Amino acid sequence: MSRILYSLTGEDESRPFSPHCWKAVMALHHKGLEFEEKLLPFTEIPTVEGGVTKIVPLLRDEDTLVSDSFQIALYLEETYPFAPSLFGGEGGKAMARFVEGYSQTTIHPAVTAIALMDIHNMLDPVDQVYFRKSREALLGKPLEEAFPDRDASIAAFTDKLRPLRHMLRSQPFIGGASPLFADYIVFGALQWLRVATGSVHLPADDPALDWFERCLDLFHGVGRSVG
């Protein structure tokens, strides 16, 4: 197959967990494009495609290489304009940038506080060494000491989704009546949490959970097939 998406995995390849890779997976399905997903551990990413990137997702589409989930979405939108739109116009691109900022500055830190050790434990021994060294350099302390009160982090998580919950009073998806790339940005963050820990840690009656369940069911349940 000429279209390949390089994605991140831990020791168990049946549980890809990267939020950014999930954005790209959902974007490709949204466009109705066939692709092969090649799963890589952290330490093997620099060995593919001539070492063009140290991070994934990385998309090869024929002779074109595109890295970064948002850049992949923009590329797909431009290259396949007759497939369903990921943005619904320039305003949708701008909205998605805002949602990306919200997700990465609010949701991602909250997920990290809950799932840091779960993610570490998903990795093979070589990747555990890499993960520990790189994350401890960022956090300035041992992984085990970075977020000592996991229960408190879980209790605080529901509040991080207040903007999503507020929006769901008016429409079923961030994109409106149907999902757009902005939905896949937030979905990727919650899927990261779900795959790493086994739960998104939201109350059963939470509208944000209902939205996430709808996203899991998209594209014949591609998100639900991993857990």
Task: Provide structural commentary.
With 227 residues, this protein is α+β, with helices and mostly antiparallel strands. It has helices spanning 19-30, 69-79, 90-122, 125-139, 143-146, 150-157, 162-167, 181-197, 207-221; strands spanning 3-8, 36-40, 58-61, 64-67. 53% of the residues lie in helices and 8% in strands. It has a four-stranded mixed β-sheet with strand order 2-1-3-4, with helices on one face. α3 runs antiparallel to α6 (150-157). The model has no long low-confidence stretch (mean pLDDT 97).
Layout of SSEs?
Blueprint: E1 3-8, H1 19-30, E2 36-40, E3 58-61, E4 64-67, H2 69-79, H3 90-122, H4 125-139, H5 143-146, H6 150-157, H7 162-167, H8 181-197, H9 207-221
Parallel strand pairs: 1-2
Antiparallel strand pairs: 1-3, 3-4
Helix pairs in contact: 1-2, 1-8, 3-6, 3-8
